[in-house]
């Protein structure tokens, strides 16, 4: 009797040990890979930072003056994408979870999820060949009627390949990520909370505002930050859509547009050698640090939200 009772415990204990060891090995592997990437960027990027050859900085005086416009363009394109994608993603998640009937919500969720499976080069082709020409008349109208706003100062780009077009493409690319996370977070709201709000006479929107949003706040932040990470690191779509220069400007519809770090590396890496290539790797290190800081802040916000709830 004792032997029969002990054998399942031994089996379960062995299974727990195997699972714990596998999970630990996977975590250590990820940390080693991350450390390897960071080490490579630091070792290969430092010569590009400390060099005094002006050719390594594309004619700029220093590494800072060369990298600053790229950082500005990276952050600007990502912010535009989030400003467009976040309300659309939250709205789509609410429609799928609370408003649309089941027979419509399920295929709608599948369609949004399929956007994440489209390769970035396809988004780039679509943005450069179809979206940009279609947006050009809108940019011309904005330059004619709203030029007093710095974002639409003009003159409008003749091709439509602007930082705003790149931001729209990025918004569509990050939309399924934010929507999927928001949908799952909304679905995890305790049913008793929702039913209690409705029982007290709240409308569906009031129930969402009082019961769903407070519970899902940290999850919303994490979803938006994941979308921001995707937008910061996107390469081919931005490189194909954006007609980039080294300008630093808030004019979103002009022909002078700041480039992004990832797009600049993709377009320039094949032609660079020696210390010039080291400089490009150093800009990759800057992007690595920016992404790390964004994710670190997101984790802090999520942890604070969980502690508060």
From TrEMBL:
Alphabetized, the UniProt keywords read:
Cell membrane, Membrane, Phosphate transport, Transmembrane, Transmembrane helix, Transport
MF terms from GO for this chain are: phosphate transmembrane transporter activity
Which InterPro entries does the protein's record reference? MetI-like, MetI-like_sf, Phosphate_PstC, Phosphate_Transport_Permease
Signal peptide span: none
Q: Which PANTHER family match?
A: PHOSPHATE TRANSPORT SYSTEM PERMEASE PROTEIN PST, PHOSPHATE TRANSPORT SYSTEM PERMEASE PROTEIN PSTC
Family the entry assigns: Belongs to the binding-protein-dependent transport system permease family. CysTW subfamily.
Q: What is the name listed in the Swiss-Prot or TrEMBL entry for this protein?
A: Phosphate transport system permease protein
Per the UniProt record, the source organism is Nocardioides jejuensis
Which gene name does the record give?
pstC
């Amino acid at each position: 009797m004792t032997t029969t009772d002990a054998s399942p415990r031994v089996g379960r204990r062995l299974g727990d040990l195997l699972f714990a060891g596998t999970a630990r090995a996977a975590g250590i592997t990820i940390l080693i890979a991350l450390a390897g990437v960071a080490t490579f960027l630091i070792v290969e990027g430092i010569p590009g930072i400390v060099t005094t050859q002006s050719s390594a900085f594309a004619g700029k005086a220093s590494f800072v003056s060369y990298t600053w416009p790229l950082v500005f363009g990276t952050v600007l394109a990502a912010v535009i994408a989030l400003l467009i994608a976040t309300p659309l993603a939250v709205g789509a998640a609410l429609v799928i979870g609370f408003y649309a009937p089941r027979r419509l919500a399920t295929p709608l969720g599948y369609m949004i999820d399929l956007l994440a499976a489209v390769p970035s080069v396809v988004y780039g082709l679509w943005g450069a060949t179809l979206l940009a020409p279609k947006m050009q008349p809108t940019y011309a109208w904005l330059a004619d009627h709203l030029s007093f706003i710095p974002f639409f100062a003009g003159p409008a780009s003749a091709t439509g390949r602007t930082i705003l077009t790149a931001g729209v493409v990025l918004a569509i690319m990050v939309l399924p990520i934010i929507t999927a996370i928001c949908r799952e977070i909304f679905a995890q709201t305790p049913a008793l909370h929702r039913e209690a709000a409705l029982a007290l006479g709240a409308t569906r929107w009031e129930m969402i505002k009082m019961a769903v949003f407070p519970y899902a706040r940290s999850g919303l932040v994490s979803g938006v930050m994941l979308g921001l990470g995707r937008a910061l690191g996107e390469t081919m779509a931005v490189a194909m859509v954006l007609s980039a220069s080294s300008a630093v400007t808030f004019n979103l519809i002009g022909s002078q547009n700041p480039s992004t770090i990832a797009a600049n590396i993709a377009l320039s890496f094949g032609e660079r050698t020696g210390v010039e290539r080291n400089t490009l790797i150093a800009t990759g290190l800057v992007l690595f640090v920016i992404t790390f800081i964004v994710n670190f802040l997101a984790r802090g916000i999520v942890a604070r939200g969980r502690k508060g709830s």
